[in-house]
Amino acid sequence: MPIVFGPPPSGVIAVLLWLALVYGLLQLVRGTNRGLRRVRRFHAIPCTRCRYFTGETVLKCPVNPKAALTEQAIGCTDFVGEVD
Asked: Which residue windows are transmembrane per the record (predicted)?
C-alpha cells in the first residue's frame, strides 16, 4: 500500500514563508552595505581633484598613468590639489 502524504499544516508554511522573507531582507541589507562601502572607497580616489589630471581618454595622468582613477591612486604621493 503506497504512503500518501497530506498537505502540510498551514502553520509550517507560514513559518517557512516568514523565514524566507527575513532571509531575503537580510541579503538585501548586506548587499546594500557592500555597495555603499564600494562607493565610499571609489569616492576616496583623488584624481579628479588633482592638478595633473587631464581627463583625456588616452592619458588621464602624466605622472602616474597606470594608477590614474584606480584604487592605487588613493594616497598618491604626487597629488597636488588644483589651484583656482
From this structure: 12-31
In terms of Cα–Cα distance, which of 31, 49, 48, 50 is closest to 39?
Answer: 31
- Name which of 67, 69, 64, 65 is nearest 49 in CA terms: 69
Selection from 73, 27, 19 nearest residue 50 by Cα: 73
CB 79 within 8 A of CB 48: no
User: What is the rounded (10 degree) CA torsion for 67, 73, 77, 82?
Assistant: 100
Q: What is the pTM of this model?
A: 0.59
